[in-house]
Amino acid sequence: MRKSLMTAVGGSAVLVAAALLIPTAGAAPGDTAAHDRTAHDRTGRAAAGEPKEGSVSAADLLAKVEDCKQISDGKYKPDEDGSPSVPVCDTESAVFWKADLDVDCDGQETEQCNKETDPAYQDDTAFHTSDGQPLDAAKTPYVVVPGKSDIWDYSDSGIQGGGIVAVIKDDKVLYAGVGDVGPQEAVGEASYAAADALGIDPDPATGGADSGVTYIAFKNSKTDAIEDHAKTVELGDKLAKEFVGGN
Known about the structure:
Elements: H1 32-43, H2 58-63, E1 89-90, E2 94-104, E3 142-146, E4 164-169, E5 172-182, E6 189-191, H3 192-197, E7 209-218, H4 229-245
Parallel strand pairs: 2-6, 3-5
Antiparallel strand pairs: 1-2, 2-7, 3-6, 4-5, 4-7
């Protein structure tokens, strides 16, 4: 949820149905290498300091989104109290926008995400885990799409709950699912876990990035278990390879 409270957005929460995430077995005591492998497997995320997830570089992805064929009817505000400056741009297989990153902490209540840490906290997300639970913003990298409006309706572009998004900040690439719906007039928001993985301060009250974040949402894509980040990375890498290899 953005720092300023959003107005209600139509539509009910959507269940992303599929198999549950099976936890990875723990490493044996004293096995440092195994511990490192287990930490990577559990999140599907590159180890700290690695610039990207998967095999496609940030530079290759950004090279495909240099020019904007605007699909939105107007532009979005990077913040609800800002000026409209961010268009949603169209390509054959994806849409993209270049904006800021506000930290969304909605979903399951955790030490990082609750009413004390985030005054705008809500205990639900628009889209759910494979077993019907709100997402855990502190653990699950997800992206927030703007609410459907006359500016743009994400579903018209083949974007849906659980859809795969490549999020790029500097030389870092993160694959995330579409997990929540935000205000109708603002864009540029992702979960606590997404911010943290990109090296952005994830504090929901004071963190985030003012600019420099690119979101590439792949059309007609969907993970059946948004909480399984390894699965999101696997699918995201496949889509990214096709995206950079296309015309």
